[in-house]
Amino acid sequence: MTDKTTPKKPPTEKRHRAEELHEILQRANYQYYVLDNPELPDAEYDRRLRELQDLEEEYPALVSPDSPTQRVGAAPLKAFAEVRHQVPMLSLDNAFSDEELVEFDRRVRDRLNSQQPVEYACEPKLDGIAISLLYRDGLLERAATRGDGTTGEDITQNVRTIGSVPLRLLENGVPEVLEVRGEIYMPKAGFAELNRKAAEAGEKTFVNPRNAAAGSLRQLDSRITARRPLELCAYGVGQIEGGTLPEKHTEILRQLNRWGFRINSEMAAVKDIQACIEYHEKLGGKRGELAYDIDGIVFKVNDIALQRRLGFVARAPRWAMAYKFPAQEEMTLLKDVEFQVGRTGAVTPVARLEPVFVGGVTVSNATLHNRDEIARLGVKIGDTVVIRRAGDVIPQVVSVVASKRPKGARDIVFPDHCPVCDSPVESTPGEAVARCSGGLVCSAQRKQAIKHFASRKAMDIDGLGDKLVEQLVDEGLLHSVSGLYDLALEPVAGLERMGEKSAQNLLDALEHSKDTTLPKFLYALGIREVGEATARNLARHFGDLEPLMQADEESLQEVEDVGPVVAHFVAEFFQQAHAQEEIEALRQAGVHWEAEETGGEEQPFSGQTWVLTGKLETLSRGEAKDYLQRLGAKVAGSVSAKTDSVVAGPGAGSKLSKARELDIPTMDEDEFLEMLRGRGIEV
């Protein structure tokens, strides 16, 4: 008896026809979206697509993930899953003048120890959303947002609906694992049509194409995304395994183009930094004529080998720079000035403005930076001022229209006492910033200090968001960072939007956070100028908190990347009685860490560079990197002649091949774990 639920097996001729239609439609998409040279009329494309849909409906076994019929159709999501980028999606440093770009070039050549001109790749900086596309064996496996550079959101269902995103790559030679990075944007014409339809339907319109693109990508229902006129433009690569790519950035992009990706037709390679300046001027002149919004030009050292030599700083590559176009400016009225207090006590004047539309958004507040900037501008309350969105992001007051000053304009009086806690406001000689002297007595500083302490890269206290911190402080339940560990279930559960379960989850997260590391704890303390990298260097150098707290400024300057200014802030912090009391209270509450292996020659891998590649099964990449750093090693993202050792897990590709070519020692994960245990690390 035949099982009626068993799908019909497609006859050979039907399977061949489906494969033929796949190829025809895939080629048509490439011609239309990538080459801008359609070869099939729309009606013919629709007929072929309908034929394939009919075949797949009759024979479900013919349906495959890369089928042109599968771009839309999945059920709406409840939420986006989290994705961790194997290779971080770093941001770019910005330049705003020719001089800053020339200075970037000087730094590049100095680091390369060369006075020869450097060839640069030039690309328009699209004003869209950065995206990561992961292909395995040529098939699209996952699409993710940039997020914070380390962790993004899985938006695969939505990205599959975008016609210019290939579901299967063309041609041969594609690496086994290929991560393509690009910008998803909305062309000007599509944006105008989208807003026209929204207005006709009585719906809310979008402010600018970038907001429209971002909103479209974050729809939980991919059918909505499919109706939005989104495009993808590839600009680079991330993770690569089981294959190689060309050794110049522009050639990598051309190879991506051959595999099915749209790249920017304005891309060029130029011989030196002067040619970069000329390119920036030329594109700036035709900015308004382009079919899409751009907010600057990205310049990258074109030679990949030189990129590897230049490396990265904490958040950005040393080999790339975004040269922003002059920000858009508008005039408006400065109605008042208020003063805000930040985590380090900095008192910042904020201009309250008559709302004005600048660079795609409505601006009602703008920074005046500090007392010196107010004096430089000569600005008064009641003035007509020019507002600029610096780098198309941060609104600021850039000048005063003196001819429009009214008779009743008032001087801006900088406060002598903190507007929040009434403590004296102090200025340090040589510093433009004035600071509240109240420290954690000041609720504004206390709130910011607690938010920083709880942040992901610090103590990582899950569920302790900004609004909850505000409530806890305002309700008198929290008076210090250490007070977090004294919170009780009943009063927390009584807060707005909490309840007993949420309160218990918070208390559990607080308990979990007590087991930390010294670098994370130092970063969480919020010492001025001590970021993640400096905290790690301090921990490595001193090994534990006690010797660090007793160190003088001279001793602190022996730490890598710690100069006189940072040394002064660190020493000053640990000399303060309230800081010592807070640290002791935190330790009494149970916050603890293991001592670090001290730096210098005593560390077994001091001065060595290691590379991790492939999928580690027992450890995460982050854990493996942390263990190596504890042993004094630097962990790099690429293999070079300077690499000392490579740890290769399953799926290791080009990095392992290159290590073997250069005769660099390699080990698998089991050998790596054994090595760690031999160094006294329990894994």
Summarize the topology.
Layout: H1 12-34, H2 42-58, E1 82-84, E2 94-95, H3 98-111, E3 120-126, E4 129-136, E5 139-145, E6 151-153, H4 156-159, E7 177-185, H5 188-200, H6 209-217, H7 222-226, E8 231-241, H8 249-259, E9 268-270, H9 273-285, E10 294-301, H10 304-310, E11 320-324, E12 329-341, E13 347-358, E14 361-367, H11 371-377, E15 384-390, E16 394-400, E17 425-427, E18 434-436, H12 443-454, H13 466-474, H14 489-493, H15 500-513, H16 518-524, H17 532-542, H18 545-550, H19 553-556, H20 564-575, H21 577-588, E19 609-613, H22 621-630, E20 634-636, E21 645-648, H23 654-661, E22 666-667, H24 669-678
Parallel strand pairs: 2-11, 19-20, 19-21, 21-22
Antiparallel strand pairs: 1-6, 3-9, 3-10, 4-5, 4-7, 7-8, 10-11, 12-13, 12-15, 13-14, 15-16, 17-18
Helix pairs in contact: 1-2, 12-13, 16-17
Cofactor: Mg(2+); Mn(2+)
GO molecular function, one term: DNA ligase (NAD+) activity
EC number: 6.5.1.2
Question: Would you write up a description of this structure?
Answer:
- The chain is an alpha+beta fold and 683 residues long.
- It has 6 domains: 12-70, Helix hairpin bin (Helix Hairpins, Orthogonal Bundle); 94-324, D-amino Acid Aminotransferase, Chain A, domain 1 (2-Layer Sandwich); 327-437, OB fold (Dihydrolipoamide Acetyltransferase, E2P) (Beta Barrel); 439-513, Orthogonal Bundle (DNA polymerase, domain 1); 518-588, 5' to 3' exonuclease, C-terminal subdomain (DNA polymerase, domain 1), CATH 1.10.150; 604-678, BRCT domain (Rossmann fold, 3-Layer(aba) Sandwich).
- Helix 12 packs antiparallel against helix 13 (466-474) and helix 16 (518-524) packs across helix 17 (532-542).
- The longest helix has 23 residues, at 12-34.
- The model has no long low-confidence stretch (mean pLDDT 85).
- Keywords: DNA damage, DNA repair, DNA replication, Ligase, Magnesium, Manganese, Metal-binding, NAD, Zinc.
